[in-house]
Design goal:
about 230 residues; mainly beta; 8 strands; disordered N terminus
Length: about 230
């Protein structure tokens, strides 16, 4: 009997079982900042689903309220924001094991917010003027690049942090009336801003995936090389 052995065979040590998870998290940095600055409230969370061991789809959302006062004017902005995109894990499966992530994410963000100047004053040669700018609702758009890491703290509980690099597409206003603060983005007077998130994540595995680990093949020894070698 002739036994045919496949050219490629999977052994136990050549593959790893990776759990794919549904993730729900909250950003802890917003409440911490609010404890030190009552004029800046930011509350947000996210939901994500692992497509495979490398890619996760993400939806984030939150509420922001910002108040700023100077000697001659007051400013108030508040609203909601939504971001959607994907995270890419740069770790190899045998390192991540479905528990760790170090990589980068991309987001498209939308901010629906209102802004107003309850009072402002201006002094010039002719005297002083006091007035206000009534509340108006705006729709802003921006992009985010999000490098970060995540690690499992307990079973199905993870913590992590990320840096948020944001690029403004539109603040929903003209160039002459940029918002002092746009929820989800930050200073609307700038074309780029940066932020930081520290999050707590609850995870639920929904299935597992067998991932093949690529191993380096040992170099073949050719006896002819030794025969052709001349001292």
């Amino acid at each position: 009997m002739l036994l045919i052995i496949p050219a490629v065979s999977l052994r136990a040590q050549d593959s790893i079982l990776i759990p794919l998870k549904l993730n729900a998290g909250i950003d802890l940095s917003g409440p911490v900042i609010y404890m030190t600055d009552k004029n800046n409230l930011n509350a947000e969370g996210f939901f994500s689903a692992d497509r495979n061991e490398k890619i996760s789809y993400v939806v984030e959302g939150g509420y922001s309220r910002f108040r700023y006062s100077q000697y001659n004017y007051d400013y108030l902005a508040k609203g909601i924001f939504i971001r959607a995109g994907a995270d890419f894990n740069m770790l190899e499966p045998q390192t991540s094991k479905g528990k760790y992530r170090a990589g980068i994410g991309v987001r498209y963000g939308t901010s629906i917010y209102s802004m107003e100047t309850p009072s402002f004053s201006n002094e010039n040669y002719w005297g002083s003027v006091t007035s206000s700018i009534p509340q108006s609702t705006r729709l802003g758009h921006f992009l985010e690049v999000v490098p970060g890491v995540k690690t499992e703290l307990f079973k199905n509980i993870s913590i992590g942090w990320s840096v948020r690099l944001r690029l403004l597409i539109s603040a929903g206003t003209g160039r002459e009336l940029r918002p002092v603060h746009m929820p989800g983005f930050g200073n609307g007077g700038k074309s780029a801003t940066a932020g930081f998130s520290y999050f707590l994540v609850w995870q639920v595995p929904y299935k597992s995936k067998m991932v093949i680990i690529k191993k380096e093949e040992p170099e073949e020894y050719d006896e002819t090389d030794e025969e052709n070698f001349e001292p």
